[in-house]
Write a structure and sequence with these properties.
This is PKD domain-containing protein. It comes from Halorubrum distributum JCM 9100. By secondary structure, the chain is mostly beta strands. It has 3 domains: about 150 residues, no CATH class; about 90 residues, Immunoglobulin-like (Sandwich), CATH 2.60.40; about 90 residues, Immunoglobulins (Immunoglobulin-like). Helix content is about 0%, strand content about 50%. The chain contains 1 helix and 27 strands. The chain starts with a strand and ends in a 6-residue tail after the last strand.
Amino acid sequence: MTITNGTETVTIPSRFLSYTPGYNELSRTPTRYDGSVLYLDGRERGENVVVIEEQSLVDDGTVRLTVLQNEYRRSGTQRATVELYPTNSTSTDGIPTGEVNITIPTRLNASTYWDGAIGDESVYTGVEDDRYAEGVHGLTLRANSDDTRVNTVGIQESPNEGPVRENVRSPSAGDPGDDPTPDISMRVDDLTDRRSNNPDFYVSYDYGGQFDEIEVSATSTESTARVTRSLSSGRNGTSLSPTFGDGQEFAVTVRAIRGGQTVAQRTIYTFADTQNPIENDDLSRSDSASIEDYVIEDQSNKNDVRYRFNYDVSQTGSFSEGRFYVLNRNGNGASGSRNTTDRSVNNFRVEPGDGTNTPYKVSILVLDANGVVVDSRTVDDTADGTDP
């Protein structure tokens, strides 16, 4: 995107956001976010553009530009959450003032959308076809800087290709600095006891920015189930047990707070079903302990679920404990767990009780001195006496 008054030009990097379903059962028409417009783009299939959410770019002579930044790519079969973060900083660069010409990348041309949407607005001057590339046009506007607002928004993290601009005039001397906000890395281990209707998420996180407190929460998107913990360490792990909500979807959030304001936030959506989310980060460090060897044996007999573990954790590296879980997948059997502070164990038994011939998640978690999960092993097994 460019903003110019004829003698001075500012360029702000921007991106499109697009989602294309990959399932054979669904139409593969992409959904796009482009210049504040959310729409289904069926043109490559010989279909039309179907607008889901109309533009909010221009309203009665006022131009409000929201510029997406940062690269984001994700594919998979589960839910992926796209979070948008406005930065907390303001540019110290000079910004054009007075009458400015604004050119915005768009995949929508004049006849397809913009003529009908804002053709009667005084600031609209047209669309230059293929200005940036084939199929990527230039929407052109002319407005006074006093009637223009420009905000950069980062996908999944604070924008790193250009700071927020509260308007296109130069910022005042009291504006905050432009240090980037560090990312929050996090991991969610789903340890739900399904039979007992007891969701249990062990949340590990790492945040290197400045903060007063870290708030970790799990909130059901389907009921009132919710639990929140307040922690004082930038690297830690904590258990969240909302007391009910088996099988429900939860938003698990780590939020850094400073001066009463959120300075960083990360959310992973997951179902309370013992299945870990695919968005989990690797939180191990070069000085973390790791699993060097392990054996899991299924010794279930009749209607008694029994598993035996052997494992060896590296003799050096940050370590606090090993946790061993035998979790029933469908709620038709008992679940159990045990912990140890030993780096090496043999014949370590976890015996939940009934549930033979039902599916289980069998896991080993290694926690570092901060309580962060830094290594793990998980197998899916039917508790039938046959080793996984």
